[in-house]
Coproporphyrinogen III oxidase
Amino acid sequence: MRAALPLILLCAVWFGAVPATADERPVTVVELFTSQGCSSCPPADALLGKLGEYEEILPLALHVDYWDYIGWKDTFARAAHTKRQKAYAYSFGTRSIYTPQMVIGGVDQAVGSHAVEVMDVIHRHKAKPQRVAIRTTQATDGVARIRIERMTHRDLPAEMLVQIVRFVPRAKVDISRGENAGLSITSTNVVTDIQGFGVWNGMDAAEFDLPNPIAPEGQAAAIILQAARKGGYPGEILAAIKLD
């Protein structure tokens, strides 16, 4: 309880004492690359859980697999998450990857356990003007869709990927071996799949049919619009929306 108190106070200072309600404000995407076998990761996992209480933030936990050989195999680890982290490292101009790492908005990074640094980066992203809007809609045939439109006259990336992210909202795992042996770790928004289903050029407004099903039973989903850099590397996240 004492360990959680500083996080509560810190979030209250940056985002307000009461978590925000859903509205038209832009959503900031925070990706945490983490592992159940990493002794430095539990504080970052806890911070991500706190961020999940704010509607204008989409926290995502991507469990990597390169810690699996040290006594404990992460139950959520995926090679695709390690590949995504390496792609971010390339775009940041470095070859090294580590846990816990938070990538904010696809373009900034911070050590996931350094709460003040993380909050500062998120705060700067929240202050940026909204350039793209994503809204859910529905066709006359009842098919669920999203509508994407630009909100600025400034240039946008030439190619942006429309992606659906599926995740388990909350999961608790008891760790019996490795660096975190004896701990019970609660993870928030554990990513199970990231799937692209459209490309937008930033010009005219466009609509895309949502994949069906949107998410497996017991999971939730969100849509992320992310710039595609040369070579297919992930770039800036221009907009995101949580799906009901």
Summary: The chain has one domain: 27-243.
